[in-house]
Specification:
- By secondary structure, this protein is α/β, with parallel strands linked by helices.
- The protein is 34% helix and 18% strand.
- The protein is built from 19 helices and 23 strands.
- Helix 2 runs parallel beside helix 16 and helix 16 packs parallel to helix 18.
- It has a six-stranded mixed β-sheet with strand order 4-3-2-8-21-20, covered by helices on one side. Strands 1-7-6-5-19 form a five-stranded mixed β-sheet, with no helix packed on it.
- The longest helix has 21 residues.
- Bound molecules: ligand NA7.
């Protein structure tokens, strides 16, 4: 035993370790408890909620309908919870999460304010050993990384950010107490989904608001509405059918997705369909045609339609022009939904700073200095995104067979089998991993699916006296072949976004998410089981016992 070992506290032995307290981790916690396993769950935040725990910024709101963006595994929760709006705001989402956690008694399994600092596979003992930032050690044969695709906030590499003497806030680490903007000169850097939600909320409250925009996003009207008691009771009566439809859809939700090709209808019909979609709101436009992500010309016509809408709303022609996204396909960057984003620029106190024509040079003690001068600020909000998809699992040491880390494995981008397991990392499972549908479908449907798949795999092992499970290199190559093959056809590659890793300097570039749709993903995951798990190798429990005896 090494010196290091002798000073270490004894590891607590469990059946399953679960990392993360977002939707995936909460469901995993429930599922494995119900299977009678000895579990321990960890969460870095002070409570459950994942992104919704951290992202308390003004205007934070889900951009999928609430009835889709909710658990389907518990009929009790479905019947007892009442959504108030079609697109729930962050406080309501946290109330929902609290309701689920309380109703299913999940918090008692969690250790909060605890960050995992390493997870190491012990090949001889067939166990994962996990260490926390409190110096504790836990070990279990199975480890579930429900660490989420958007959990590592990114601070921009703008010189001087640390020098700013005013209040510096990151949207992804927003304070718990209310933040007042009244009379303040506020700056927002970033105009992705987060920046857009902040701008429309803070614009009317701030003394002056300066929006630092590098790449404009396409945003469409959300047209959020309160949900009536009649609608809620119909949904409750029909949840089973609604969930079934979602599971068999491309997006994992109830948004219709047409197969209609853009040029299969006349220009007049196209215009009328686009106007209808705009009136309908949400992502109706994306669902109106089936080929917008593969037909560049069709895509450009839809983009031009939306640019026209911007010009109709924004009064100052120069601002309108700067807000129009150009140079990348619509929907290739996460499409945003807003309630009054473009209208906000008509307020006299709201100013767009175009960082393409007037780049940010540095953050100073007093504000932001760009080519044309210094803009003094009392508060600077960073809405600069996340080290997405792979960021959480490379942020600490996850060490598999032969001492190889996930960091090393993913040096050329996220790589896994089904987005759930990795060759070289036995018994380590991910929910909403980087090579599943991830950000391209309803993350709650994916989380539930992945946890169910993992639970079935563990049950299979238990029934058959198997101790370890790991994808073969061949199966992983095949899966990544499918992922890359589909990705090549997509226009998503033509935009520089977090979807393709372009927002983090030095990160491997390319689309590694499965773009074949949620229903197809389920089908392929089911096929990996129904062919007798032929893409996986299993180690027997006896070998483990034998190895232990020999050790
Ligand atoms: P995003 O979509 O990654 O947006 C980040 C924004 O921050 C984007 O507009 C970036 O511009 C901007 N940014 C980042 N660094 C800089 C610098 N240095 N200078 C100027 N602007 C900068 O993150 P969000 O949080 O908005 O959304 C993430 C997801 O959450 C969203 O897609 C939904 O799924 C929910 P850039 O594009 O790099 O030019």
């Amino acid at each position: 035993m090494s010196n290091k070992d002798s000073t270490q506290t004894a590891a607590k032995r469990l059946d399953v370790i679960i990392v993360g307290g977002g939707f995936g981790g909460m469901y995993a916690t429930y599922k494995f408890r119900e299977m009678g396993m000895k579990i321990q769950s960890f969460e870095a935040g002070g409570d459950l909620g994942g992104v919704w725990y951290w992202n308390r910024y003004p205007g934070a709101r889900v951009d999928l309908p609430s009835i889709d963006y909710s658990y389907s595994f518990s009929p009790e929760v479905e019947q007892e919870w009442t959504w108030s709006e079609q697109f729930a705001a962050q406080p309501e989402l946290l109330r929902y999460i609290d309701f689920v956690a309380t109703r299913l008694d999940l918090r008692k399994h969690y250790q909060f304010k605890t960050r995992i600092t390493s997870a190491v596979w012990d090949e001889a003992r067939k166990l994962w050993t996990v260490e926390t930032d409190r110096g504790e050690r836990f070990e279990a044969p199975f480890c579930i990384m429900a660490t989420g695709p958007l959990s590592v906030p990114k601070v921009p590499d703008i010189p001087g950010v640390e020098k700013f003497k005013g209040r510096l806030l990151h949207a992804g680490r927003w304070p718990h107490e209310p933040v007042s903007f009244e009379g303040l000169r506020v700056g927002v850097i970033g105009t992705g989904s987060t920046g857009i939600q902040i701008v429309q909320d803070v614009g009317p409250q701030a003394g002056e608001l300066f929006v630092f925009q590098r790449t404009p996003s396409f945003t469409m009207p959300m047209r959020n509405v309160p949900l009536t008691p009649e609608y809620i009771s119909e949904v409750r009566r029909n949840y089973a059918g609604i969930r079934e439809a979602a599971r068999n859809s491309t997006v994992g939700g109830t948004r219709p997705q047409s197969t209609r090709a853009f040029f299969s209808v006349t220009p007049e019909q196209r215009q009328s369909l686009l106007e209808d979609a705009w009136k309908q709101g949400g992502l109706a436009m994306l669902g109106t045609f089936g080929d917008l992500m593969v037909n560049e010309e069709a895509n450009e016509q839809v983009a031009e339609f939306v640019r026209g809408k911007i010009a109709e709303v924004v009064e100052d022609p120069k601002t309108a022009e700067a807000l129009k996204p150009k140079g990348y396909p619509i929907f290739a960057r996460r499409p945003c939904l807003d309630s009054s984003y473009y209208e906000t620029y008509n307020l006299p106190n709201v100013h767009l700073v175009d960082c393409i024509t007037d780049p940010i040079l540095e953050v100073t003690e007093r504000g932001v200095r760009n080519a044309s001068g210094e803009i003094e600020l009392d508060m600077l909000i960073l809405a600069t995104g996340y080290d997405a998809l792979t960021g959480a699992l490379i942020a600490f040491d996850v060490v598999g067979k032969g001492g190889r880390t996930v960091n090393q494995k993913w040096v050329h981008g996220g790589r896994s089998t089904l987005g759930i397991m990795m060759e070289g990392f036995p018994n380590l499972f991910m929910t909403t991993g980087p090579n599943g549908p991830s950000a391209l479908a309803n993350i709650i449907r994916i989380s539930e699916h992945d946890v169910d798949w993992i639970a079935a795999a563990i049950t299979h092992m238990q029934k058959n006296g198997l101790a370890t499970m790991e994808p073969t290199t061949q199966a992983e190559d095949n899966w990544m072949g499918v992922v890359h093959g589909l990705a090549q056809r997509s226009l998503i590659n033509k935009a520089k976004t977090w979807w393709v890793g372009a927002n983090v300097p030095g990160k491997s570039q390319g689309l590694t998410m499965f773009i074949g749709g949620f229903a197809k993903y389920r089908e392929l995951c089911a096929a990996a089981v129904s062919d007798g798990y032929s893409g996986f190798t299993f180690g027997r429990a006896e070998e483990k016992t034998k190895e232990r005896a020999e050790a």
